[in-house]
Amino acid sequence: MNIKEKLDILSDAAKYDASCSSSGSSRQGKHGNTSSSGICHSWTPDGRCISLLKILLSNVCMFDCVYCLNRRSNDIRRATFTVDEIVKITTDFYKRNYIEGLFLSSAVFLSPDDTMRRMMEVAKKLRREKGFGGYIHLKSIPGASDELVEEAGRYADRLSVNIELPSNVSLNKLAPDKNKEDIFGSMSYIGKNYLENKEERKKHRKAPTFAPAGHSTQMIIGASPESDRQIVTLSSGLYDKFALKRVYYSAYIPINEDVRLPEPQIITPLLREHRLYQADWLLRFYNFKADEILPVTAPNLDVDFDPKTAWALRNYHQFPIEANTASYEWLLRVPGIGVQGAKRIVMARRHTSLDFSHLKKMGIVMKRARFFITCRGHILDNLRTSPQMIAMTLKPKKSVEDTQLLLKI
Ligand code: SF4
What we know:
This protein is an alpha/beta fold. It has helices spanning about 5-10, 85-95, 110-130, 145-155, 170-175, 180-205, 230-240, 270-285, 290-295, 305-315, 330, 340-350, 355-360, 365-370, 385-395, 400-405, and strands spanning about 25-30, 30-35, 40-45, 50-55, 100-105, 135-140, 160, 215-220, 245-250, 320, 375, 380. It has two domains: about 5-215, Alpha-Beta Barrel (TIM Barrel), CATH 3.20.20; about 305-405, no CATH class. It has 16 helices and twelve strands. The protein has a seven-stranded mixed β-sheet with strand order 3-4-5-6-7-8-9. The chain has a three-stranded mixed β-sheet with strand order 10-11-12, with no helix packed on it. A two-stranded antiparallel ribbon has the order 1-2. The longest helix has 24 residues, at about 180-205. The radius of gyration is 23 Å and the shape is globular. Mean pLDDT is about 90; it is low at about 20-40. The protein binds iron/sulfur cluster (SF4). Iron/sulfur cluster (SF4) binds near residues 61, 65, 71 and 175.
C-alpha cells in the first residue's frame, strides 16, 4: 500500500477524535510559532485559526470497543504508517504551509507500549532530526509504560488520554479491553509531570519541557445512559485531580450495530454537546461548582437556556445585584456578563458611578443582563418581573438552524 492510500485511510479514521481543539501553548520554533492543538482546522485562544495534520499511526487494533469503527471485529481496510512516513508527510506539509502542526493518535497496535513507542519516535524525530517547530499533540495510550509517556512529553506540546465513557460501568460494557486504572494512571502520571515541570521551569528557564500545553481528554456522550450531572461532576473531578486543561465532549455517532449500544435511530443532539461545553466553561472560568450547574433536582442541562441563565433563573431570589458594588465573582454569575465584561465593570467603576448606558458600551448583553442587575439602585425600565416571565421572554424562538442543531449529528 502506498503512502497516499495510507493517508486516506488513517486521516479518515482519525476524524472521530474530538480532543484536539486548541488552548494553550506557544513554542518558539525554527519555522515560527504555533499555538495549541486541533483537528484540521482549529482555533487558538486568541481566535487564530490553525491547521493541523490529524492522523492515526495505525487503525489496526487489538481492542474491541463496541462504539468504534476501528474495533478488531470490524471488517474495514487497515493500514499502519511507519515512523518515517509520518515524519516525511508532516515535514512536507509543514514546509508547504499546509499545516502548523500534527495531531497523532492511534489504535492499539500490537501493544500499548509498541504503539506509544512509535508515536514517541515520530515526535522525537520531528524535533531532533528535522528541527520541527510546529505544534505536536500526541494521544497517550493507556497502559503504556511511564518511561515512554515521559519521553513523549519531552517532544510533544500536548498529551491526551481518552477517558472514553463517563462511568466505569459503561467502560466495562462498551470498551471491555480497557480499564479505568490504566486510564486514570496515565492521566495522573501526565498531570503530575506537567505540574512538576511547570515548577521546574519557573526556577530554571532552560529546563526541558514536558507537554507545555498540558493534557486533555475526550468523553463520548450519548453512547451510555449517564446524566449531564454525572458527566459534569466527573469533568470537575478530572480538572481538580489531574490538572487537565480540557475535557472534550463528543456526541456519540452510531457507526456499529450492537445490542450494547443505543438503537441507531436514537441520536445524541449536538445541542447536548454544546450545552456540556457551556457548562464546562462555567467550571473553568466562572468559578461554578458542578453541583450548582446541575443540582440533584435538575440532572440534565436545559435545552432552552444556557447553563448560566438556567442557574440564574433557579436562583432568582439572589438577584438583582448592583453593578456598582457587586463582587467580581457575582458579576460573573449574571447572564449576559462574561469574563471580559465583568473585568471592565470592575475597572470602570473605580472612576465613575455606572449606569446602563455604560454597561451597553462595555459590551454587556443587556437583553439578558437587564433582569438580573441594577445600576445606582435602579432596574432598567423599572422592569419588575418573575423568573417565569423572564424565562418566557428569553426562551428562544426555534429557528430552522436551531432545529438542525437539535437533530444533527
Ligand atoms: S482502543 Fe478501542 S477506541 Fe481505540 S481504536 Fe481500538 S477499538 Fe477503537
